Amino acid sequence: MVNMATQVLDILSARLPLIGTTILVSLVAFVIQRIFAHDPLAEIPWIGVELGDSEKRRKAFQNGGAKALYKRGYEKFKTGIFRLTSMRDASVVVVSPDFLPELKKLPDDVLSMKIAVMEDLESKYTGLKTDDDIVPHTIKVNLTPALIRLNPAIAEEVDRTLKAEFPSCKDWTPVKINSKLLRVVAIVSGRIFIGPELCHDEEYIDAAINYTVELMTARRAVQEISPVWMKRFRAPFLPEVKSLAEREKKVTRFLTPIVTARRDRERDDPGYKKPDDMLQWIVDAEKKFGVKEDAEIARLQCILSFAAIHTTTMTALNVFYNLAAYPNTVPEIREEVKTVLAEHDNQFTSHAMQSMKKLDSFLKETLRVHPPSFASFNRKVLKPIHLSNGTVIPAGVTLEVPAYGISRDPATFPNPDDFDGLRFYRMREANESFNSSSASAVEAAAHNQFVSVSQNSLTFGYGRHACPGRFFAANEIKMIIARAVLTWDVRNVGGEKGRYPNFDVGVACVPDPRRELEFKEL
Ligand code: HEM
Of ligand 1's atoms, which has the minimum distance to the CA of residue 472? Predict the structure, then answer.
């Protein structure tokens, strides 16, 4: 044995110079290869290189620079492609909306929305896994088709919650509008997500509002770790990440007995009438998606809250700030709401809401001028893509579309920086009368609505993963704003003029949650 070891050592020491040289040559070759390796994105021009190295560019993007980058990039490469540095770890390639029709045909194993979202949310550390289809499936199959049936319940909850949450406003009264709207949206959405009793439970309301706040806080804390390669070592120990995990456990503790009780009654009580809500539809979707643990059901409710509550609240908050900043349109909208409701027995039916075209236009203009995100169609490239202009996008890249630049293009939207509440109303009317004799009248009308998705209208995304909840969100926001304009006048504090500015944080454009508005009953 000793002999054998000595022999091996002898051979090694005899060959040491050879082994050493081999290692050295391999190392040099590796370094040279890294230096001279062909960058597959080398042909794609950059926007924002003048901001400095990649860390400086990341910081500039995070601290308010994103908007200008998407606008400049779009203006310079309107039909082409450019690169920029965002908060993502992966390279970001921004493509013209001209490529959307070809990109939307690609399957999910080539171009993945879910992986892009999970990377964006730092799911590796925050734990939010959105790679399950059960939530979008349930919204498309159960929620949206049921809206005609559910509208009276949504309207009833809007009325009740606005009365309960807003103070009496006989004279101009300051209202902390963001926190009021968060509760209104959480409760009204909760009526459909988890039922008429539980939506008023403070534990549900707290979770519906604060899960997303804590998720976004944890995500931001992870994104701020610098340099990027330190994330894996530091992120799991961040206090923000730990409290998010605690929040998920709390939601599970709250929901588990509810799901268990529903399952027990369904099994034991032949006369049991199942609840008509998202929680039940998700449980029922087990037949298609496989049985879910109760903790998994709680996690899916967290995903639903994340997708629905703050997106809807932020949009409604932007609308309220615009009602206060641009009051000239309000009398016309108020008149329209009154007339339409009178024609529909004072009910918010689907048809009534479709007829509120001026209100719809005001909401859509709000999304155009104050979009929640400056980019859209975030997709991770999983297999190389050959674009029609000959460019090959390699796997590993994240694709985006410069939604902000598109929405400020004067060729599509004259005077794009002006807020024009009736812009889309006029566009619809013009299209409808131009096409009035053809089947395309319906198509033309469909283009300029709050919920419509097109190459120029990307706030709800695009293609097969475009937001499935937008029809529910549209009805909820319309009911809230319609009731508000029928009940109050709204203005900035002290009648101050101008639009409260939004914050630009990375790719997000957030209405200032600390502002107050003043309300006065009509
Ligand atoms: C005004 C409010 C809302 C906005 C601005 C909004 C925006 C978006 C956007 C931009 C996407 C990504 C689409 C894409 O990349 O193509 C999305 C996806 C999604 N949204 Fe919304 N959303 C809103 C309300 C809601 C509501 C109320 C729900 C639930 C009822 C919801 C559920 C979802 C889901 C489940 C997805 C993922 C779709 C999929 O995986 O295929 N959203 N939303």
Answer: 27
Give the pLDDT score at 2: 47
Q: Which residues, listed in sequence order, are joined to residue 112 by a DSSP beta bridge? A: 380
pLDDT at position 430:
87
How high is the pLDDT of residue 162? 98
Distance CA 185, CA 309 (A): 6
Ligand 1 shell residues, CB under 6 Å: 113, 135-136, 139, 307-308, 311-312, 315, 372, 377-378, 459-463, 465-470, 472-473
Q: Give the distance (Å) from ligand 1 centre to CA of residue 478.
A: 17
DSSP-assigned states of every residue in 361-380: HHHHHHHHHS-SBS-EEEEE
User: Are 62 and 223 a contacting pair, CB within 8 Å?
Assistant: yes
Instruction: Centre a 10 Å sphere on the Cβ of residue 35 and count the other Cβ atoms it contains.
Output: 7
Instruction: Give φ, ψ of 174 to 5 degrees.
Output: -70, 135
**Can you give the pLDDT at residue 28?**
64
Q: What's the CA-to-centroid distance between 304 and ligand 1, angstroms? A: 9
Residue limits of CATH 1.10.630.10 in the chain:
132-373+410-455+459-521
Q: Are strands 517-521 and 488-492 parallel, antiparallel or unpaired?
A: antiparallel
Report the Cα 216 to chain-centroid distance in Å.
12
**Count of CB atoms within 10 A of residue 340's CB?**
21
Gap from CA of 268 to ligand 1 centroid (Å)? 37
Low-confidence ranges of the chain (pLDDT < 50): 1-2
Using CA of residue 14, residue 17, residue 20, residue 26, what is the dihedral sign? negative
Query: CATH classification of 132-373+410-455+459-521, choosing from 1.10.630.10, 1.10.10.10, 1.10.4200.10, 3.40.50.2300?
Result: 1.10.630.10
φ, ψ for residue 37, nearest 5 deg: -55, 140
Phi, psi of 472, deg, nearest 5: -65, -45
Distance of CA 10 to the CA centre of its chain: 66
State the pLDDT at residue 450. Answer: 97
Query: Residue 246 has what pLDDT?
Result: 93
Locate 313 and state its tokens: 């609240």
3-state helix, strand and coil shares in percent for the chain, rounded to the nearest 5: 60, 10, 30
Contact predicate 78/386, CB 8 Å: no
Q: What is the pLDDT of residues 136-186, one digit of tens each?
A: 999 999 999 999 999 999 999 999 999 999 999 999 999 999 999 999 999
Q: Distance of CA 125 to CAs 85, 167, 237, 299, Å?
A: 21, 41, 10, 15
Cis before 227 (ω within 30) = yes
Q: What residue spans of 166-292 are helical by DSSP H?
A: 177-193, 202-223, 231-234, 239-268, 278-284, 286-289
- Cβ atoms of 451 and 477 within 8 Å: the answer is no
505 CB burial (10 A radius; 0-12, 13-18, 19+): middle
Is 173:521 a contact under the CB 8 Å cutoff?
no
